[in-house]
Design brief:
single chain; about 120 residues; about 55% strand
């Protein structure tokens, strides 16, 4: 989802309840952590909710992509459908697109990890 040259963590502030593989998650801030190129954990800010997400790449990377989670609106419910990141576009494997789905995009805010710096000076 994210590449080595870019952060492998991001936050997304979802303004509506949504579903992931049949589980309903409440609106709120979530963290996306890349475990492997097609495996991501989604964790609520309070740490009470966590989902493992598996993706299938559907499009190659673009220059300066819009970082976003794509939700599909279907029958009045929003479903986590996929992502668009530096590694291209990917569809959640547990989601099957249908004709008539309407997309609702929510931006991903990259989170850079702090790099440990040595303390003291070398002797």
């Amino acid at each position: 989802m994210f590449s080595q040259d870019h952060p492998n963590r991001g936050t997304v502030d979802v303004p509506f309840d949504f579903y992931v593989a049949g589980d309903k998650l409440p609106a709120g801030e979530y963290t996306l952590d890349v475990v492997a190129s097609t495996y991501v954990t989604l964790r609520s800010k309070d740490g009470k909710r966590q989902q493992d997400l598996y993706f299938l790449q559907t499009a190659w990377p673009e220059k300066d992509p819009e970082l976003k989670v794509v939700f599909a609106l279907r029958d009045g419910k929003c479903y986590f459908a996929g992502v668009s990141t530096w590694n291209g576009k990917a569809q959640l494997t547990s989601f099957t697109p249908m004709a008539g789905d309407q997309n609702k995009d929510v931006p991903i805010k990259p989170v850079k990890r702090d790099v440990a710096r040595p303390t003291g000076s070398p002797h």
